[in-house]
Amino acid sequence: MTALTFTRARSFIRTPGRLGKSGTASAVVIALAVLAALFGPWLAPYDPNAPDLQIAWVGPVSGHLLGFDFQGRDVLSRLLAGAQSSMLGPLVVVALAMAGGAAFALIAAWRRGATDAVISSGLDVLFAFPGILLAVLATTVFGAGLTAAAVALSIAYLPYVARVLRAGALRERSQPYVQALEVQGASVPRICLAHILPNMSRMIVAQATVLFGYAMVDLAAISFLGLGVQPPAPNWGVMISENQPGIMQGYPLPALTAALCVVAVVIAVNVLGERLLEREAVR
Fold first, then answer.
1. 275 belongs to a structural domain
2. Does a structural domain hold residue 258?
3. Which among 53, 81, 138, 147 has the fewest CB atoms less than 10 Å away?
4. Model pTM?
């Protein structure tokens, strides 16, 4: 049973062509963003925090493909260095929300009855709190920064994840292989973690990719408001906020390039998530 599960998982990973052209292109965009997040600080051609007010707002010139921002800092270097915090924050949100949502989903699906009803009621309460509002409240109470905002968003996203994964867990719970494992004396944690959860891998991956896009937008908005990553640290949301006046003054490139990075990654993860959900629906 376990061997069959991992065989299915490997076939899922090794068939990118089935995602279609848009899904494959989205995967390439995400891969580039991940590479920038991992190696951006070392790939940046210049110090992303080194200002030179004499060249503020100067456009693209030789050696500086995207020009300079309002403090004369190299825009390309700040984009590459800012990819790390811009990608890490959503990743933390997704990891926490998926872990908590999967735990609640498995417990509700396995126990059912009163336990399922109590968990569902608790999730309904969490649905009442908008994610970005909860993040703003958290940064107000615990101080501005990426950590408080990421934890708050993960709590806000948890009920959405739990609801979707609960449906998949209930489906797997009713499968004959679960009853066979129970007859063989397999423990509940082993059945859930080694069999049910891997068999939900497509649904989990699809939900994680879609959730990543929402988390990136919300965290960028929080940084834009000055409650997330703090200047002068490079971050795409911070770059949009800092260079916003340049749009009205005729120097839109620094803000627009950061905004385009956010938009490109969000579109890519949403398209990829839709393709994965389509594959899950026809499985």
1. yes
2. yes
3. 53
4. 0.84
